[in-house]
Write a structure and sequence with these properties.
The structure holds two protein chains of two kinds.
Chain A: H1 2-16, E1 32-36, E2 39-41, E3 47-48, E4 51-56, E5 59-65, E6 76-79, E7 84-87, E8 89-94, H2 131-134, E9 141-146, E10 153-161, H3 167-170, E11 171-181, E12 186-188, E13 198-201, H4 205-223, H5 232-242, E14 246-251, H6 254-266, E15 271-276, H7 284-289, E16 293-297, H8 312-322, E17 327-330, H9 342-350, H10 356-361, H11 365-371, E18 388-391, E19 403-408, E20 411-412, H12 418-430
Parallel strand pairs in A: 1-6, 2-7, 8-9, 11-14, 14-15, 15-16, 16-17
Antiparallel strand pairs in A: 1-4, 2-3, 4-5, 7-18, 9-10, 10-11, 12-13, 18-19, 19-20
Chain B: H1 2-17, E1 36-47, E2 50-60, E3 63-68, E4 77-81, E5 86-89, E6 91-96, H2 133-136, H3 141-149, E7 152-157, E8 164-167, E9 169-172, H4 179-182, E10 183-185, E11 190-193, H5 208-226, H6 235-242, E12 248-251, H7 255-267, E13 273-275, H8 284-289, E14 293-297, E15 303-304, H9 309-312, H10 317-325, H11 329-335, E16 340-343, H12 353-362, H13 367-374, H14 376-381, E17 399-402, E18 413-417, E19 435-441, E20 444-453, E21 456-463, E22 466-468, E23 470-475, E24 478-484, E25 491-497, E26 504-509, E27 515-522, H15 525-531, E28 565-573, E29 580-589, E30 592-597, E31 606-609, E32 614-617, E33 619-624, H16 653-659, E34 663-668, E35 676-679, E36 681-684, H17 691-694, E37 701-706, H18 726-748, H19 757-766, E38 770-775, H20 779-791, E39 798-801, H21 809-815, E40 818-821, H22 839-845, E41 850-852, H23 863-872, H24 878-883, H25 887-892, E42 910-913, E43 924-929, E44 932-936, H26 937-963, E45 968-969, E46 973-974
Parallel strand pairs in B: 1-4, 1-5, 6-7, 11-12, 12-13, 13-14, 14-16, 15-45, 28-31, 28-32, 33-34, 37-38, 38-39, 39-40, 40-41
Antiparallel strand pairs in B: 1-2, 2-3, 5-17, 7-9, 8-11, 9-10, 17-18, 19-20, 19-27, 20-21, 21-22, 23-24, 24-25, 25-26, 26-27, 28-29, 29-30, 32-42, 34-36, 35-37, 42-43, 43-44
Classes of the chains: A alpha/beta, B alpha/beta.
Chain lengths: 434, 985
């Protein structure tokens, strides 16, 4: 057994010197692992200063306060006094694994031709060996929702974990939702055609919302029959009517949000998740009435209008949470490599007065609930997957987000990346101490 | 009948003024007419300030023979009595394209056009001083009539296309004459602009800074050419040299370009007449400082239609203000004694001119100034005061006959005489029947209002408060008004011969077909006043919101000034060897850090309790692209001649947002489109100052270079520009530095040389006077540039981005170059495959001076956090991390003697934070530059509510404008471009 482990260590070292290899996925969990003494950030808003967390067969079997409870420390014990344990962070609405290098067209698989193509599935193109995906893990992002981009209905997303040999291994929840880019009532001026730069009223707005309505009506009607003619786009839409899939609606402004939710609810869409929602704070009662949760844009962004508060993007998640809306964070519009900054987007909201543990919910339990994977992920709760990590310090602050261990479904994953390998290689060249 | 006489009159007046016919005539006999045309008893304005009551004007052969009060009238005169009427010199529009069409737009081609397609002309297609408007001129009766109806008699026209546009032509709007008579001056001036020609797709210049550099080089080249240095013929430069003594006009188009135009002119002792943009009132001090003369358009923006609140959200407070404030532009210019002419340029039609001018009057524009701006000033700008602009003896007989004071709202323009040719706009004997009347019919009193322009009257008929649809026609002294009730069951028709301006009498045809006589009684002016408050409207001065500095949201009510401040008991991050000092006081005085220590005496200083807070030096961003109108001059592969200093945008809201993130100084770098980019602007974020106020007074000289995919045009459709490979990039540098060296040697030898701004800049690098900040990615090219520099005996100052710097950190250290890098960017293009966030740490450990930069308006306002990432990636200490955004970039920019640390004697550029500034939780509470508070979190709150309040005020005013029938425009938001290195423009 020990020898076997040594072989793996050796193999890992060998791999780390090969420039193009990715980290090898970890083996399934063997025996019980117990982390003791760490501050456990549960992910549901609570915290245990001195905790005991045990997991077995990839599932959490104990979460307890070491100062008050006297449960036995079972299995392989990891002493983590002064350290912090978090549930794995979840990145929604990303094209991680669909694009490797933005500017290299050959490496870009995120946007298919067509306007209404829900039958386009991200999962089958997901590159489990992407170097960009790998770079998420040392920052604590262990799960992602992989979604196609572009068009009106971009396609169907799937939720994956970030330590896998292939897309089948990676899938947590296949085909979890459909992504709809709602039309905008204003559009950018086509300056290359002589229009002014900036934003003009979109004269086609109604026409475009009618197109959405028409497509969904057709899809719904299709679902009412057992036609022997198969229409894949219509077929792929059924989940949003029967409640098996969520509909992710990308809309920013008050008017568009109201239009979208009113129309989609009328058409029988069961679960609507608003993505973006720049002006969602203006219509909180409306959102609550329709039970719409919001995936807010990364806080590290500029205000959309020049007269907005400079810190408006920093505080939008708080405004919505204070109003009782279920909120998560996404950075759908950013380059995928940026997603490793997800914890800091959440940390930014703390500066606006949000409680740290609540801020943590924005990238853990809230997101899990919004995505529909909260039965297994999103918090340190007995019975849920042991997808978690240990950090030297506060993981929402870049100074102290320093992972020492990370587990996905109890598997002890590598925290090395293409980047850490280059760091090692050149530190060694210069004989720097690390 | 009347029309016929009118036409006949016109015909005669035309044929009578012919004189000294020197050409044969076969359709009639040659006869000369020596008669005079005389106007008597008029209120005569010989000039705007010389008014003659009961004046007489004598004209003959299209010129003024005499004007004044004691004028002898020759016996052979046709005399018109203008008792009660006024005569003014007619208007001149000095900036027009009348009769000269713009060339057709060149078709888009597959690949960019780098070189000129002409030969024998200047090397750039957008420079066409050889163009002559007169060659393209074709008189347009229709446009001439529109202009005359607006009061204009002369327009100055040119080909409105290109950067150097050639010469213009001065034209009388005289329909009856030949071009031989109406072309007053065929070379009226030289015309320039900052806009490329639509007729050529030559890439250079691709930006405002390129256009201004090209204007400069053109002038340098003209000097050199004039001295006979060129071996080849250049018809463009020859034309420019030949026309040197003509007045020069430059279309700038806004307050910043006005200043840029003036600076360009000053270099060559050219006093450009500047065509402004109408926003000069916003920075009137810098406009005044140009000491230039202006031509000012008055196309004041329409109100926005704010009835849909969602749509209205898109309108910025700055755009709302522009609607509210810009009609004050002429008044502000006049109040500041700036000489300017008005123009119809930018207006959709000359017919709108009066409406806009009236608006300016409502805003307090002086009417005499206005008349000068339309007569004597344009004449003077054109150097043609001897011919036009007044009714002094010998001037062209270009004048207006009006019913009253020319700018009075009720005044009617009857006739517009051009070169002695009469043009009737409205028959001057017409009766002004406008007013309100009571019309008694069948025991009911209908109220009838006649309103509108005299030439286009309309009627409104009401019984009690019900409006009866009505129609009016008024021709040849006959007035017909018909009206009916809504159901069209009762039709009334009236017809009257108008003989006075009092009551109207005539015949009315009743619904039953019977006819009877009627008298409609005209209400007295008192009665009218009590009837509606319409009249009073004119007297209420408009509500104008105050301007701020800058005049956008979050602008300052007044410019911040240096304060005497004592920060008490702060945690002070010195960025010096002292590191972090606990419980320390910092005294700020006269813009400097005057003292650091414990328990300092406050004296008169305002004391700020900084207990529990952190005081740091202001953050410095070595690589920013905010606050500029353009970033890349991509038209040439070397663009050393351009400078970001020419295109600063002090109104960019990102300046304010950066201040709110604790940033106080930035280097605005040129983009990365070219191996040799443009010169930088190094500024302090003094929000509210004008462009010059932002610049460091003792700034070192910098230039941007770039390596990698962008300069090869790898990621966009461009396949024929040199270089396309990294190998080509090296040779380009070698070539340019060889040439710069040769240029410099020749210059230093005292031999005659062609001043080449690009070579001047490159020679500065060779002479160690200018520093390079080079955009760089992979190790091979980094190494290459250091080797090229070493070959030419200079040092690269900074590698910016420098993502593979860690691979050659030892070589960088020995070359002595610094590094300014991203914290954690990678994977966005092929050359950043090996970019690692540990880069800054490895380079630091190797002894390189490292800064963290933004290249991005979003990251720049959180540079403290970006620096903190070096703690996570690579284990930097907090002090090391903090230095990377303060003292290290200060060193890289050669500004560490002034900024970058908290040290006695340095500039008081300080930030007060509520927490450890490297923490994600920290917020800047106060940001000072040279002791003046430019950001304050409490002040920010006030500004937020002020914006809300002002929006509300302006929204109400716009609603009012719409309700009272004013034209509106749909809401839109102006495009603020967000720049990165790669933004092409």
């Amino acid at each position: 057994m020990k020898n076997l482990k040594n072989i793996f260590v050796l193999a890992a070292i060998c791999l780390s010197f090969s420039m193009f290899a990715q980290q090898t996925p970890a083996l399934p969990q063997e025996g019980i692992i117990t982390i003791v003494g760490a501050t456990a950030h549960i992910g549901d808003g609570t915290v245990i200063e001195n905790s005991i967390i045990s997991f077995e067969n990839g599932k959490i079997i104990a979460v307890a306060d070491a100062t008050t409870s006297k449960i036995a420390l079972r299995g392989n014990v990891i002493k983590a006094e002064g350290k912090h344990v978090y549930p794995g962070f979840i990145a929604p609405a990303k094209s991680l694994g669909l694009v490797e290098v933005n500017a290299v067209r050959a490496s870009n698989d995120q946007d298919e031709v067509g306007d209404f193509i829900p039958n386009i599935r991200s999962l089958i193109a997901y590159n489990a060996e992407s170097k960009v995906v790998e770079s998420m893990r040392p920052n604590g992002i262990l799960i992602g929702q992989i979604s196609p981009k572009g068009g009106r209905i971009s396609g169907t997303s799937s939720i994956v974990q970030f330590d896998a040999w292939n897309w089948e291994d990676a899938a947590i929840k296949a085909d979890d939702g459909i992504h709809l880019n709602w039309p905008t009532s204003f559009r950018r001026g086509r300056w290359w055609r002589g229009e002014p730069r900036g934003w003009l009223p979109n004269k086609d707005y109604n026409k475009q919302t009618n197109e959405v309505s028409a497509f969904l009506s057709q899809a719904k009607a299709y679902g009412n029959t057992n036609s022997n003619v198969v229409n894949e786009p219509f077929k792929a839409t059924q989940g949003i009517f029967n409640g098996n899939q969520r509909l992710y609606v990308y809309a920013q402004r008050e008017k568009e949000i109201i239009d979208a939710i009113t129309q989609l609810k009328e058409q029988g869409v069961q679960h609507i998740v608003l993505v973006g929602g720049y002006e969602a704070h203006r219509i909180i009662p409306f959102l609550k009435k329709h039970q719409v949760s919001v995936l807010v844009k990364q806080t590290h962004s500029l205000p959309m209008d020049s007269d907005d508060d400079y810190d408006f993007p920093y505080k939008l998640p708080k405004l919505l949470m204070d109003g009782g809306v279920l909120v998560g964070l996404q950075n759908a519009g950013m380059s995928n490599f940026q997603t490793r900054n997800l914890p800091f987007y959440a940390g930014q909201v703390v500066g606006q007065g949000l409680d740290k543990e609540k801020a943590l919910q924005l990238i853990t339990s809230n997101t899990a609930k919004i995505l529909g994977i909260d039965a297994d992920y999103g918090s340190l709760t007995v019975g849920k997957s042991a997808t978690l990590f240990i950090s030297e310090g506060d993981a929402l602050d870049m100074r102290t987000n320093l992972l020492t261990k990370a587990f996905i479904d109890g598997r002890d994953i590598s925290l090395e990346t293409h980047q850490t390998e280059l760091w090692d290689r050149y530190s060694e060249k210069y004989e720097h101490k690390k | 009948m009347k029309k016929v006489t009118l036409l006949l009159l016109l015909f005669f007046s035309f044929s009578f003024v012919q004189a000294q016919i020197y050409f044969p005539k076969n359709t009639s006999l040659k006869e000369e007419n020596n008669n005079y045309t005389v106007f008597t008893n008029a209120t005569l304005f010989i000039t705007p300030t010389r008014k003659i009551n009961n004046g007489t004007l004598v004209i003959k052969e299209g010129k003024v023979i005499a004007a004044g009060s004691n004028v002898t009238i020759p016996k052979n005169s046709i005399i018109t009595d203008l008792k009660g009427k006024y005569i003014y010199p007619s208007f001149i529009d000095p900036y027009s394209s009348f009769g000269v069409s713009k060339p057709e737009r060149a078709k888009r081609e597959q690949s960019p056009q780098w070189e000129t397609k002409r030969s024998g002309f200047y090397w750039n297609d957008h420079i066409m001083p050889e163009n002559k408007a007169i060659d393209k001129f074709k008189y347009e009766n229709k446009n001439a009539k529109e202009l005359r109806n607006a009061g204009f008699g002369v327009v100055n026209s040119h080909i409105m296309d290109g950067i150097a546009r050639g010469t213009g032509v001065l034209i009388s709007l005289n329909d009856e004459a030949t071009n031989g008579e109406r072309i007053l001056v065929e070379n009226s001036g030289n015309y320039f602009s900052f806009s490329k020609s639509v007729a050529s797709r030559q890439s250079y210049p691709g930006s405002l800074m390129g256009a201004s550099a090209l204007l400069r080089q053109m002038n340098y080249d003209a000097d050199w050419y004039a001295k006979g240095n060129s071996k080849t013929k250049d018809r463009s430069l020859e034309a420019l040299i030949n026309n040197k003594n003509l007045p020069s006009f430059i279309e700038a188009g806004n307050k910043y370009k006005d200043v840029l135009a003036d600076k360009t002119g000053d270099l060559f002792n050219l006093n450009y007449v500047i065509v402004g943009g109408g926003d000069e009132y916003e920075s009137i001090e810098s406009i005044k400082a140009t000491q230039s003369k202006y031509i000012i358009p008055i196309n004041f923006p329409k109100a926005y239609d704010v009835s849909d609140p969602y749509a209205a959200n898109y309108i910025s407070i700055a755009d709302m203000r522009a609607w509210n404030q810009s009609p004050s532009n002429p008044k502000v210019l006049a109040d500041n004694d700036i000489t300017f002419s008005l123009t119809t340029h930018q207006l959709k039609s000359p017919a709108d001119f009066k409406k806009h001018l009236n608006k300016a009057f409502e805003y307090g524009f002086d009417k005499t100034k206005a008349l000068e701006a339309l007569t004597t000033v344009p004449a003077q700008l054109l150097g043609q005061s001897e011919k036009i602009g007044s009714l002094q003896v010998g001037r062209y007989a270009n004048f207006l006959i009006t019913s009253g004071e020319i700018f009075d709202k009720k005044t009617i323009l009857y006739e517009n005489w051009v070169q002695g040719t009469k043009n009737v706009i409205i028959d001057k004997n017409i009766k002004d029947i406008r007013g309100s009347y009571t019309l008694p019919i069948g025991g009911k009193n209908y109220s009838v209002t006649i309103k509108g322009e005299l030439a286009k009257l309309s009627s409104e008929v009401k019984l009690d408060s019900i409006t009866y649809p009505s129609k009016l026609s008024y021709k040849n002294d006959w007035l017909n008004v018909s009206f009916s009730d809504k159901e069209k069951t009762e039709n009334y028709r009236t017809t009257s011969k108008i003989t006075s301006e009092e009551n109207i009498t005539g015949k009315i045809i009743m619904p039953n077909g019977s006819a009877s006589n009627f008298t409609a009684r005209k209400l007295t002016s008192e009665e009218e006043k009590s009837k509606s408050s319409e009249e009073n409207k004119d007297n209420i001065s408009p509500e104008i919101v105050p301007i701020t500095y800058p005049n956008v949201g979050y602008g300052n009510n007044s410019l911040p000034t240096s304060q005497h401040i004592l920060f008490k008991n702060a945690t002070v991050w010195t960025s010096e060897a002292d590191g972090i000092l606990q419980n320390t006081d910092v005294l700020v005085k006269d813009g400097k850090i005057s003292k650091i220590g414990a328990n300092l005496k406050s004296g008169n200083a305002r004391v700020i309790d900084a207990t529990g807070k952190h005081l740091t030096a202001g953050i410095i961003d070595e690589h920013s692209h905010i606050a500029a109108f353009s970033i890349n001059e991509g038209g040439h592969n070397s663009s050393a001649e351009v400078s970001i200093e020419d295109v600063l945008d002090p109104e960019d809201i990102d300046i304010y947002r950066n201040l709110a993130g604790g940033v106080t100084s930035i280097q605005i770098l040129h983009g990365s489109a070219n191996p040799i980019g443009g010169r930088s602007a190094i500024i302090k974020l003094k929000w509210g100052e004008d462009a010059d106020g932002l610049l460091y007074d003792d700034r070192p000289k910098f230039i941007k270079f770039a390596l990698g995919e962008n300069v090869k045009h790898s990621n966009w459709q461009s396949f024929n520009r040199f270089p396309q490979t990294r190998m080509g990039v090296e040779q380009m540098y070698v070539n340019y530095f060889n040439r710069a060296k040769e240029y410099d040697t020749k210059k230093k030898s005292g031999a005659s040389f062609r001043y080449d701004e690009e070579m001047e800049v490159l020679a500065e690098i060779l002479n160690g006077e200018r520093f390079i900040s080079c955009h760089s990615y992979v190790q091979s090219e980094i190494n290459m540039l250091m080797k090229v520099a070493e070959k030419f005996n200079f040092k690269v100052n900074t590698f910016t981005h420098i993502l593979e710097g860690y691979k050659v950190a030892d070589k960088m250290k020995s070359h002595g170059v610094g590094a300014s890098t991203f914290s954690d960017w990678w994977a966005y293009k092929y050359e950043v495959n090996d970019a690692i966030p540990y880069n800054a740490a490895i380079m630091t450990n190797e002894g390189v001076t490292v800064a963290i930069n933004s290249d991005d308006g979003e990251m720049s306002r959180r540079l403290n956090q970006e620096a903190a990432k070096t703690i996570k990636y690579g284990g930097m200490t907090e002090l090391q991390a903090w230095n990377m955004i303060t003292i290290n970039p200060a060193k890289l920019l050669h500004l560490d003697h002034r900024v970058g640390s908290i040290k006695e004697g340095k500039d008081a550029d300080l930030v007060l934070w509520n927490d450890n500034p490297l923490s994600i939780y920290a917020k800047a509470e106060k940001t000072l530059i040279e002791g003046a508070v430019y950001f304050d979190k409490d002040l920010d709150k006030q500004k937020r509510s002020a914006i809300k309040k002002e929006r509300n005020t302006l929204t109400k005013l716009m609603m009012k404008e719409k309700e009272s029938g004013g034209k509106t425009q749909t809401p839109k938001r102006k495009g603020n471009k967000e720049f990165h290195c790669e933004t092409i423009n």
